Amino acid sequence: MISPCFTQQVELLNVQVFPCRQAMGESSASDAALHLRQLLTQQQQVRIIFAAAPSQNEFLAALSQAKNIDWSRVVAFHMDEYIGLPSDSAARFSHYLKQHLFDVVCPGEVHLIPSSGEPEQLCRDYARLLQQAPIDMVCLGIGENGHLAFNDPPVADFNDPYVMKIVELDATCRQQQVNDGCFPSLAAVPTHALTLTIPTLMAAGRLFCMVPGENKRQAIADTLHYPKSVSCPATALRTHPACTLYTDIDGFGEVPHV
């Protein structure tokens, strides 16, 4: 396992920088797998929320190959989903997570956000599932605009009263989906989505945040140094007592010489 080439503590947030995104993915997955194994020795089920994005590819690939995990005792959720895509669309986040993790490790329970139904009712139903017991782990990323899940700056709320809500996606967020190769054009990206709120994500016991790549460099800098504000929703991570941000040199920029 490759060690980080630089570590930093920013308020409560632990930051680990790796020489490449493959090393970042393998190390973050090793840490998440270790924590998951520990939880499974202490409780019957472990409840985890996963992000769906290309930034998670290396992490999920390594996690899916981790040994000695009883996935039958894992209850899996995901954190956001587009409104309006057909159920068989390859751009749906449920499709991504099934392909990259759920169909590989077969968790005991997988709660996918439905592709059809009245959006407000879908939010209420999914919120009830999430609130049945505490969330133990969240595996997430940060958007180019600093979003967490689909809590873009215009709709983010650090004191959101909702567990899950309907949001309109801002232009930067939608363009990122094109940049990531998920859609052929901006016009093809849905304008609205369902997302877990920031308080829902922050209530989890342990957060693992994987953010590789040069396109995320400004978002990482803002996360670490911008005043805590919904102008950069990811600044909330600095207040969580057990969150690690994993990135690579491309995402972090030049590391200080020691």
Automatic annotation (TrEMBL):
<dbReference type="GO" id="GO:0019262">
    <property type="term" value="P:N-acetylneuraminate catabolic process"/>
</dbReference>
<dbReference type="InterPro" id="IPR037171">
    <property type="entry name" value="NagB/RpiA_transferase-like"/>
</dbReference>
<keyword id="KW-0378">Hydrolase</keyword>
<feature type="domain" description="Glucosamine/galactosamine-6-phosphate isomerase">
    <location>
        <begin position="22"/>
        <end position="149"/>
    </location>
</feature>
<dbReference type="InterPro" id="IPR006148">
    <property type="entry name" value="Glc/Gal-6P_isomerase"/>
</dbReference>
<dbReference type="GO" id="GO:0004342">
    <property type="term" value="F:glucosamine-6-phosphate deaminase activity"/>
</dbReference>
<protein>
    <submittedName>
        <fullName>Glucosamine-6-phosphate deaminase</fullName>
        <ecNumber>3.5.99.6</ecNumber>
    </submittedName>
</protein>
<dbReference type="Pfam" id="PF01182">
    <property type="entry name" value="Glucosamine_iso"/>
</dbReference>
<dbReference type="GO" id="GO:0005975">
    <property type="term" value="P:carbohydrate metabolic process"/>
</dbReference>
<dbReference type="GO" id="GO:0006046">
    <property type="term" value="P:N-acetylglucosamine catabolic process"/>
</dbReference>
<dbReference type="GO" id="GO:0006043">
    <property type="term" value="P:glucosamine catabolic process"/>
</dbReference>
<dbReference type="GO" id="GO:0005737">
    <property type="term" value="C:cytoplasm"/>
</dbReference>
<dbReference type="InterPro" id="IPR004547">
    <property type="entry name" value="Glucosamine6P_isomerase"/>
</dbReference>
<dbReference type="GO" id="GO:0042802">
    <property type="term" value="F:identical protein binding"/>
</dbReference>
